[in-house]
Design a protein that fits this description.
mainly alpha; about 90% helix; extended
Length: about 70
Amino acid sequence: MDRLQAQEYKARYQLVNLITQQEARELSAEEKLHQLAVMVSASFNLGWTESMQAGEQEIRQRWIQLKKKHV
C-alpha cells in the first residue's frame, strides 16, 4: 500500500465512521435497548460473564473509594 492508497483508505474509513455515528444517533430508544439486550445475551452465550464480574468488582471498589473521599 503506497501513501496515496493509505490516504484514500483513511478517508473512506472516516466517512464510514461518520455514517455509523449518524445512524446510531437516529436509532430510537427501543432499538438501542434491543441492541443492548442482544449484546448482553451474546456475552452470556460466549461465557464472558466471569470476566465481566471480575471487572464489576473492581468498579465497585473504585466507587467506594470515591464516595469515601467526597463525603
